[in-house]
Amino acid sequence: MEHQRLFDGSARARCPVSVSTRHSKIGIFRHQVGSSVETVASAPAQDAHLVVMQLRDLPPHDFWADDKRIRMPFTGAGSLGILDLRRESSARFVHPLDSLHVHLPREALDDIAEDAGARPVDDLVVRDGWEPADSLIRGLQPILFEAVRAPENAAPTVVDHLVLAVAAHVAATYGNMRPALQRRSALAPWQLRRAQEMLADNLDKELSLLDIAEACGLSLSYFTRAFKASTGTTPHGWLQTCRVDKARGLLVSGDLPLAEIALACGFADQSHFTRIFRRQTGMGPGAWRRERAVGRSLVSTGSPGAVSPEAP
Q1: What is the pLDDT of residues 114-156, one digit of tens each?
Q2: What range does the record give for the signal peptide (predicted)?
């Protein structure tokens, strides 16, 4: 029989994805057992909750909370459950396992509630043990999975947004968090200027949104809301627009290959560059460059129908 500690200090250090709040961290990891070896998974008592998203069907199994045995029913892939880690917990499995876990410490939940203008969340409860039809979690689960599977390919700004959105949704849906009515608070001019400068100066790499929020003296969730109120888009959306603007300049000013322009502007690769460029301009970067080159050629040769640069 194999015994696994589900979320102790060593597991926390191995979390491939983590997002900082003001006073804590939200961690995400994958728990996978590929064979039918009998496995006991346990979690030490701590002031936190563990959100479990099943990636495959889970047959009935035994679960213990504070030494009280509970027989858990069949759980389908895509279902969501929440484990209260304030109670000593363990489970015994005799089948393969595959699930994503989101570790939500009490301090992180308090930060989320405070940022929303809500009272602290006392508990997170899923009625009947598992929720099979949480459409938001089901929709985000594939993106979370990819972020955990290949964290080196995940954009920090996107991961920050995603993890905070999941945590806020869980707090509201299963913890009855009720945010206060939000005022449309925008960034102060100096905060907006600092945030945009930090983003624009780091187009070729991803900054953590937490670093930018702290430079503005704000919490992460408040900063992201205020940035969108100020600009009409998210920090990541604004960053992508800046990258496309820089790419336009490089496309018309020289003959750099598209792959080099992609890396110079902070895109993951040429495919990523092409996809974002087409989304914002309506055409791929190669076609955009050729169209501009033809226009410049017509103007310089004075071809019929060309518009003179001096024309109004």
Answers
A1: 888 788 999 999 987 889 989 999 999 999 999 999 988 888 8
A2: none
User: 């994958």: which residue's tokens?
Assistant: 30
On whether the CB atoms of residues 167 and 104 are closer than 8 A, the answer is yes
Whole-number Å distance between alpha carbons of 126 and 81: 6
Q: How far apart are CA 119 and CA 224, in angstroms?
A: 21
Distance CA 183, CA 105 (A): 28
Q: What distance in Å separates the CA atoms of residue 288 and residue 58, rounded to the nearest whole number?
A: 50
Report how far residue 67's alpha carbon sits from residue 224's, in angstroms, rounded to the nearest whole number: 43
Q: Which residues contact 130 (CB under 8 A, 6 or more apart)?
A: 54, 73, 75, 79, 80, 81
Virtual CA dihedral for 65, 69, 71, 77, nearest 10 degrees? 20
The C-alpha atoms of residue 36 and residue 57 are separated, in whole angstroms, by: 14
What φ, ψ does residue 209 adopt, rounded to 5°? -60, -30
Q: CA–CA separation, 95 vs 74, rounded Å?
A: 12
pLDDT digit string (tens) for 149-171? 998 888 888 888 889 999 999 99
Answer whether 198's CB lies under 8 Å from 206's CB. Answer: no
Q: Torsions phi, psi of 71, nearest 5?
A: -90, 115
Q: What is the pTM of this model?
A: 0.67
Residues 6+ apart with CB under 8 A from 33: 2, 4, 39, 93, 96, 97, 98
Query: What single DSSP character describes residue 23?
Result: S
Return the DSSP state at 179.
P
CA distances from 305 to 2, 74, 76, 296 (A): 78, 72, 65, 13
- State the pairing for strand pair 2-5/39-43: parallel
Are the C-beta atoms of residues 84 and 44 closer than 8 Å to each other?
A: no
Q: How far, rounded to the nearest angstrom, does the alpha carbon of residue 224 sit from its chain's CA centroid?
A: 13
The residues that bridge with 104 in the sheet, in sequence order, are 49
